[in-house]
């Protein structure tokens, strides 16, 4: 079963083809970073226009790269939410139109389920059950996973998501968009000079809150002369606080659930300092830990094709009405397997 995956939830236009037995066949991605960098963030209308311009050529390229024809495609999966409504509609309308034209089933995929299942694309994938930490620009979630669609929310961000906090802090430091990776690069030049708080680690629970850390960072920046070294030291302290906070929460989640496998996914999971802290924790506790490869940490079509393939194989399909939800709780997803 060849499944075409389409991802257009924000500012990445991505497509992929996944086969149920052969695995990932091909994938392509077009990044809009250059378009949005002039504005310091994603402009929804511009994102939608770029998706319209790039999506169909990318689909053609992905099919060609896989040495396939449209007649070989057995199903289509697309990101139905959450995300920017205009961007989601481009992918939804394209997917539904192709499915109708080709006479094949189509299914809308939850964006965060795609991220959650991205490590399944690796040669040595995790086995259910496990604890998952999903950290991206819009989400910070801890979830107990017992199967595809069987998700128990353990904790979430009460304000800023981890990626959002990275980007806002980078902006405070005068770094260009996208700020998260540039902050991580700047932190490599920093020194152990400031001690930042580890939010909500001094009380029970698995929820996150990063707005206070962001405010503390701003006050620290304003208390310095803002030399290049000052900024590097602030970046170092912020990143370390974020990494240790996430690690503490993951350790608690594993203890609370009694599980011994941890999956990390989402754009922020590419951060090497966060990975190092989590790997050290996992090694100390004898926990199995899994990350997607860096190219599948950020938004991509492969994760959507994989997630869609699993649901289509379980017999799930949707009618040809255009379905897109900018807000979509994972708790509403149906279980397909255990």
Please tally the helical runs, counting DSSP H or I stretches of 4 or more residues: 10
Biggest sheet layout: 5 strands, mixed
- The count of β-strands is 10
| Weakly predicted, low-confidence segments | none
Quick check: average pLDDT? 96
Radius of gyration: 20 Å
Assign the CATH superfamily of the largest domain: ATPase, nucleotide binding domain
Classify the fold: give the CATH topology of the largest domain.
Nucleotidyltransferase, domain 5
CATH class of the largest domain: Alpha Beta
State the strand order across the main sheet: 3-2-1-4-5
- Estimate the global geometry from the Cα principal axes: globular
Class by alpha and beta content: alpha/beta
Quaternary structure state of the chains depicted = single chain
Q: How much of the polypeptide forms β-strand, as a percent range?
A: 15-25%
Order of helices and strands: EEEHHEHEHEEEHHHHEHEH
- Overall domain count: 2
Distance from N terminus to C terminus (CA atoms, Å) equals 21 Å
* Range of helix content: 40-55%
């Amino acid at each position: 079963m060849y499944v075409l995956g389409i991802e257009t939830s924000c500012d990445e236009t991505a497509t992929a083809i996944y086969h149920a037995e052969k695995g990932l066949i091909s994938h392509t991605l077009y990044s809009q970073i250059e378009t949005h960098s002039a504005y310091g963030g994603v402009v929804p209308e511009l994102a939608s226009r770029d998706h319209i311009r790039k999506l169909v050529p990318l689909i053609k390229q992905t099919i060609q790269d896989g040495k396939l024809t449209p007649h070989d495609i057995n199903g289509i999966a697309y990101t139905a939410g959450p995300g920017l409504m205009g961007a989601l509609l481009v992918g939804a309308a394209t997917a539904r139109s192709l499915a109708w034209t080709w006479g094949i089933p189509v299914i809308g995929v939850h964006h965060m389920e795609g991220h959650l299942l991205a490590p399944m694309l690796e040669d040595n994938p995790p086995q259910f059950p496990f604890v998952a930490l999903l950290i991206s620009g819009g989400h910070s979630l801890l979830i107990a996973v017992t199967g595809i669609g069987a998700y128990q929310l353990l904790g979430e961000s009460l304000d800023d998501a981890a990626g959002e906090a990275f980007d806002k802090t980078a902006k405070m430091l005068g770094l260009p968009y996208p700020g998260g990776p540039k902050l991580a690069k700047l932190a490599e030049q920093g020194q152990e000079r400031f001690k930042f708080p580890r939010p909500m680690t001094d009380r029970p629970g698995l929820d996150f809150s990063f707005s206070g850390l962001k405010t503390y960072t701003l006050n620290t920046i304003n208390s310095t002369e803002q030399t290049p070294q000052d900024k590097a030291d602030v970046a170092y302290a912020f990143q370390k606080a974020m990494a240790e906070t996430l690690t503490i929460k993951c350790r608690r989640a594993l203890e609370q659930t009694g599980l011994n496998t941890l999956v990390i996914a989402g754009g922020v999971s590419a951060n090497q300092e966060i990975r190092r802290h989590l790997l050290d924790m996992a090694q100390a506790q004898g926990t199995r830990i899994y990350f997607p490869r860096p190219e599948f940490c950020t938004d991509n079509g492969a994760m959507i094709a994989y997630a869609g393939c699993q649901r289509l194989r379980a017999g799930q399909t949707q009618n040809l009405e255009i379905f897109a939800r900018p807000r979509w709780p994972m708790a509403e997803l149906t279980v397909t397997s255990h």
